[in-house]
Amino acid sequence: MRDGDEIIGFYYFHEQERTVEIGLGLRPDLTGKGLGLQFILDGVSFAHGRFPGRRVTLNVAAFNERAITVYERAGFRRTGEHVRTFERWGEVPFVEMEEER
Prior knowledge:
The protein is built from 2 helices and 7 strands; from the N terminus they run E-E-E-E-H-E-H-E-E. The protein is of the alpha+beta class and 101 residues long. The strands form 2 sheets. It has a 5-stranded mixed beta sheet.
């Protein structure tokens, strides 16, 4: 996503049979400024337009409580948990979330 010539963040979308998984990131210097809710809502809106009829899901690192709060405010609920292993960080717990519709 751009604001003029400035990149402010990114989205990725992974289409699945009944859902579309969204991944997103806001530029670090823009976090904590009240932009997150609109950023996620814009991504979800795009997903619904591009992948009609599919529910939007996402995964977020469990330690990222601020992001989880924003996702809940955007209408997502926790649906599960899993652990991913990264060479650099080891095991990282993730929260699985799905939009409520």
